[in-house]
Amino acid sequence: MNKGKTINVDTTIEDIVQYHPELIRILVEHGLTCVACGEPLWGTLQENASRQGITNLEEIINTLNQSLNK
């Protein structure tokens, strides 16, 4: 993922942490933990949302992309 791409269900947590660390706060606010948050979870947003029982992933992705476009 480069800085210009949008985030989707297949975007990895690794890419968000590496290329968009400013979005980590949004992940935490929505219950998606990541390695930078102290949890060693990697993989795609979809995988992590499923593993953590999060059902509003599209809403989270919209929030992440809106934040990128500011």
In a nutshell, what does this entry contain?
The chain is built from 4 helices and no strands.
Which key terms come to mind for this protein?
4 helices; 70 residues
Describe the overall structure.
The structure is a single chain. The chain has 70 residues and is an all-alpha fold. The chain has one domain. The chain has helices at residues 13-19, 24-29, 45-51, 57-68. It is globular, with a radius of gyration of 11 Å.
Q: List SSEs in N-to-C order.
A: HHHH
Work out the count of structural domains.
1
What structural category characterises the helix and strand content?
mainly alpha
The largest pleated sheet is described as: none
Measured distance between first and last alpha carbons? 18 Å
Shape: globular
Low-pLDDT segments, ≥5 res: none
Total helical elements: 4
Helix share bin: 40-55%
Radius of gyration: 11 Å
Mean pLDDT: 85
Q: Tell me how many strands there are.
A: 0
Q: How big a fraction of the residues is strand?
A: under 5%
